[in-house]
Amino acid sequence: MFMKTLFLNSLRLIAMFATWIYLPVPNADAAPTVAQSSFSLAVGYGQYGNLLHQGEATPLYLLPRVSYYRQRFYLENLDLGFNLWQQQGFSLDLTSKQSFDALLLRQDPLQDALLRGLIKSKKVFIMPTNSRLDQMLTPERRHFSYLSGISLFYNLHNWQLSSALQQDISGVHHGLEWQQKARYLWQQGPLSLAITAEYRYLSSNYSNYYFGVTDKDTVAISARQPQLRLYQYLPGAQWLPAMRLETSYQLKDDTRLLLNWRREWLPTAYQHSLYFAKRQHDIWFAGVLWSW
Amino acid sequence: MVKMTLLAVSLLALSAQAQQLQTTTLTAQPVPSSQPLVTGFNVQPQACIAKGAQSCSVDLLISWHSNSPLCLNKQQQPGRALVCGSDINHYSLNVTIDSNLVLELRDSQHQLVSSKTIKYLQQTEYSALPERRLRWSIF
């Protein structure tokens, strides 16, 4: 509730701020701006980890990347941004981004994962007679959500610090995410290395939707008491730390060797969701990146 | 409001003048032996940079020395002398141009002795935003 109020107040502040600060308007004195765009395709091998019980990682072979910058507008794959204010390394942007947390709970093995989690948990459940456990588990599909809000960037030398407060605008869970990142970039000739520490806060709505076991995920154990479920768990708001390591070796102007890896740690609270066999989510990819 | 601009300057070469540019480069035209001898025909600066598609205003400093009086004119206005003389030092001329400007030196018979081209350059601006993600970051 506090975070939602904070978010709404932030949006109001932005609206007031935007009326005061310089916004891009057609300006006869301005030089025409040339758009900067690039399309890249990474070819190689990697994996998108699977945290579910008996879940298998998804192999990655091709990863496209699109970026487009024009004046104050930019696009980075599915993420959009519009710069409101920029001064001495600081930038305040309106931003939106695709949330990929739905990928952590892919639909097909979700029922199996919950079933195995229930069995492994050794919890005591009340079950109606003549019923099977697997029939009582109806985990709802987790949909992708799209977030929008504000982002503050600070660039200094090889550092980039950012903080983004973004609310679900797709009506999927109505939650919000607050993400902090600190990235350090080291370059030596053709070799580049970027280390990023991340920390994101998920509001209750967000966290419960993707990582909880809601009343829609299991059936009622009694027709007389429809609110009584086999198992229910709402973890509430949580913090998720992550680390990212990205290396690149430039072979030619348009060709790089890549090795990217990201690990995110789920909080211990998510263990009670019973879906997850482990709490470390890894994504990695190694290959060649061509840019146009 | 800091505007970090990476500027690329593109030459606006009008097609009608494209051929002319090749013949009126910054080097002086060959002078036939019967024409007056001109030395040190110099125009500074040799380019004017406009923001976008606007016209461009610049103060030119013009000098030349010759063994007989010559007159300076714009190529588009051959009959209208801007200044005449045989020993001109740092003559100041303000011009506003929206294409390349050719300045000519002509003798008393209106024969072309030498010429200079002031290039009209157009400034373009790349996005002032530093990239939010590394170009090689793929997820």
Notes on the structure:
- Chain A has 292 residues and is mainly beta.
- Chain A has 3 helices and 13 strands; from the N terminus they run H-E-E-E-E-E-E-H-E-E-E-E-H-E-E-E.
- In chain A, 13% of the residues lie in helices and 47% in strands.
- In chain A, strands 2-3-4-5-6-7-8-9-10-11-12-13 form a 12-stranded antiparallel β-barrel.
- Residues 16-29 of chain A have low confidence and may be disordered.
- Chain B has 139 residues and is mostly beta strands.
- Helices cover 6% and strands 53% of the residues of chain B.
- In chain B, strands 1, 2, 3, 4, 5, 6 and 7 form a 7-stranded mixed beta sheet that branches.
- The interface between A and B is large, with 45 and 26 residues.
The total beta strand count of chain A reads: 13
Name the assembly state.
heterodimer
Largest interface by Cβ-Cβ < 8 Å: A-B, 45 and 26 residues
What structural class results from the helix and strand content of chain A?
mainly beta
Short summary:
Chain A is mainly beta and 292 residues long. Chain A has helices at 2-20, 110-121, 204-211; strands spanning 33-34, 36-48, 58-70, 73-76, 79-87, 90-99, 145-156, 159-168, 176-188, 191-202, 238-252, 255-265, 280-291. At the A-B interface, strand 1, strand 2, strand 3, strand 5 and strand 12 of A face strand 7 of B.
